[in-house]
Amino acid sequence: MAKPNPLPLRTGPGGEACIFCRIARGEIPAKMVGQNPDMAAFRDTNPQAPTHVLVIPKKHVASLDDAMDSGLLGQLLAFAAAIARQEKISKSGYRTVINTGKDGGQSVGHLHIHVLGGRAMEWPPG
Ligand code: 5GP
Ligand code: ZN
Fold it and tell me: What is the pLDDT of residue 16?
């Protein structure tokens, strides 16, 4: 039997109680801006820029460190770019962010890409 992983981000159930899985299943409301059978994009409830969209795989993947499907990752990134075009921030520019784990500042244990735009971003990030 597999040894349980001690990291909290990886010990969650396969999506039953995961907040982003529940959004993907339509069980809790979100301002959805786009979706396809495999991915969803919805507005962040605590926006850090005029446009702040979260792009997720509908399948539960805890973090980038847990993402083993390179095809899915490629599709997710392409979907994020399509959402940025739809949101009309692709010409002015935007930032994509994936926070991973404790030091990365990840607070929701379901892989997501932040798509931020509508203002000039600063560097370095905090
Ligand atoms: P992280 O800190 O994991 O990179 O990003 C998680 C993001 O999810 C945060 O920006 C937070 O505001 C957002 N968030 C947390 N709970 C909810 C929710 O229930 N609905 C939506 N739309 N966003 C959420
Ligand atoms: Zn999930």
Answer: 78
| Best residue for ligand 1 mutational test, from 18, 21, 46, 97 (most atoms within 8 Å of Cβ) | 46
Q: What string of DSSP letters covers 34-69?
A: EE-SSEEEEE-SS-SSSEEEEEEESS----GGG---
Residue 121 DSSP one-character state: P
Give the residue from 55, 60, 70 showing the smallest Cα distance to 115.
Answer: 55
Predicted model pTM: 0.91
How far, in Å, from the CA of 1 to the mean position of ligand 1?
A: 33
Which one, of 51, 58, 64, 62, lies nearest residue 36 by Cα?
Answer: 58
